[in-house]
Design goal:
Strand content: 5-15%
Shape: globular
Number of domains: 1
Radius of gyration: 17 Å
Structural class: mainly alpha
Largest sheet: 2 strands, antiparallel
CATH class: Mainly Alpha
Number of helices: 10
Amino acid sequence: MDSLFASPVTMGLLALNIVASMIAFSNQAFMSQNVLWVGPMRDKGEWYRGLSSGFLHVNQFHLFLNMYGLWMFGPICEGILGGLGFAIVYFASLIGGSVWAYVQNRNEPDYRAAGASGALSGMILAFCLFEPFAILLAFFVIPMWGIVFGVLYVVFSYVFSLRADRIIGHEAHLGGAVAGVIATLLVRPETLGEFIAQAADRFG
């Protein structure tokens, strides 16, 4: 908890996600006006949805999962990147996820999506760059190195994003992950050298 209070950007993002989502749970008009919805974006130019949708969630469990991830990884990434750097990576990942989701579904006007998953994907991939050999639990039970987790995350997000019967926006996960890695390397270029050095130390 102390690390959270030392991470004001993470705290602010947690609060914003929770407040916006709670409003949306009881106000369907607010939800409809702010989710990523291809039709209004394409036909009416409502591009703000690519940002606003990243702070809304479809139900309490969806909100809990994403906020748990933000609570776990946010303070670590903010501590390494600094507040401004972390905010840049977070919002680049959020928008990257929305752009990927929109482009992949641009011919499906009824496609809708919401959630911080794109932003969270970028943040997790940033963590995997910082700590490639930290142990993460895939599906909360399978232990693996961060770098293995990161690679599998991208691969599975891509594969599942191609499924016609998907109910989870894996395309936003993929876009957020790619944008998160790029933004992290731009904000903190020494990350790549440190990553290579850790790999060389581990396997050299």
